[in-house]
Amino acid sequence: MKLLCGVKSKCNLYTVHRGALWAFQSQSTSGILSRTDPDITHPKYPLRVMGPDGAPGPNVPWRKVLWERQPFPDNYVDQRFLEELRRNEGLRQYRYWAVVKEAGFVGQQLSCVAIFITIWLYMEQGLLSPETLLWTSVICSILGYGLYQILTPESEAGSEPRTRLADLQSTAIFLSFTFGFSPILKTLTESVSTDTVYAMSAMMLLAHLVSFRYAQPSPTCSLSINAALFASVCLASRLPGAVHTFAMLSCALLVFALWPCLLQRMRENTPHQFTLVCLAVCLGGVGGLGSQSVGGAVILALALGNVTFLCPLLLVRLQQQKDNIQGPWDEAEISEDLSHFLL
């Protein structure tokens, strides 16, 4: 549409300019202005025969140019106009079970949040000691780190700048600072009501799920990690002692930061095992939450069913109804790399 408007405006300006010039020449030579239309009176612009209903004759082909005078209306297009119509260009076709498999990552992350809440409920009720949680977290971290190294390709392992010693130093620094600040974090929300703490924790966990990078999880996703750690600090401050806070924060780092990286590595290298692990995590989340609240387990199961099975079905069905057209009326797109002009 913008292209047609541009053609019309330029043709009008061209016609007015040529008409005014011919009128000025006629007045200067003869002093009498008979006709000011160059398309009719001037021998350089002879009258061309039009077809029936104002359509051009067969001997006057229409050309899509601006620099040539043509006996056509400004908004004229021929039958070739729709030959450049492109429908659903670059449309990606989805398969249902492939989408379900990818949606399993979202479902397992939702289950991880449920498992973390279940662990916090067990610690608050005194059913789980902080020592047991710490040793379990250490064992899981060692096993997960070893599995991550095994799944890392040799080409990528040789190009990684970090070493095992650097990873060990980072772990020691984090554990030292977390253990040292645990008494402060324990009393951080003493002046805040419990209902407010629970509301903030729920909002931050929701922000973690929304901002999580499901396509390519990494610890550098600051918003998702910060939201999860903020919720962990709020919940850990309601536990009995500083050791409980330290154990809870260590578990939060394992669940929200390290576990997604290992799962992404499994998705890239062992897709079949990735599907089984996601299924096991979802079952563990529903079972763990069901041991504390049957209603919560039912809500989680319904949410997992919608995310994993219903949403992919809607995506595949709606993708079949998609109708996107492109053609010569679209705005021009510059395909050339113009970055060298910005230097």
Helix-strand layout with pairing:
Blueprint: H1 2-29, E1 86-87, H2 96-124, H3 130-151, H4 154-159, H5 164-186, H6 194-211, H7 222-236, H8 242-269, H9 271-290, H10 294-320, E2 325-326
Antiparallel strand pairs: 1-2
Helix pairs in contact: 2-8, 2-9, 2-10, 3-8, 5-8, 6-7, 7-8, 8-9, 9-10
Write up what this structure looks like.
With 343 residues, the protein is mostly helical. Helix content is 63%, strand content 1%. The chain has 10 helices and 2 strands, in the order H-E-H-H-H-H-H-H-H-H-H-E. It has helices at 2-29, 96-124, 130-151, 154-159, 164-186, 194-211, 222-236, 242-269, 271-290, 294-320, and strands at residues 86-87, 325-326. A two-stranded antiparallel sheet has the order 1-2. Helix 5 (164-186) packs antiparallel against helix 8 (242-269), helix 8 (242-269) packs antiparallel against helix 9 (271-290) and helix 9 packs antiparallel against helix 10 (294-320). The longest helix has 29 residues, at 96-124. The protein is elongated, with a radius of gyration of 35 Å.
| Radius of gyration from CA coordinates | 35 Å
Structural class: mainly alpha
Mean pLDDT: 79
Number of helices: 10
- Please trace the helix and strand order, writing H or E for each element: HEHHHHHHHHHE
Strand order, biggest sheet?
Answer: 1-2
Residue fraction in strands = under 5%
Overall spatial form: elongated
Q: Report how far the terminal alpha carbons are from each other.
A: 34 Å
* Helical content class: 55-70%
Q: Characterize the largest beta sheet: strand count, sense, and whether it forms a barrel.
A: 2 strands, antiparallel
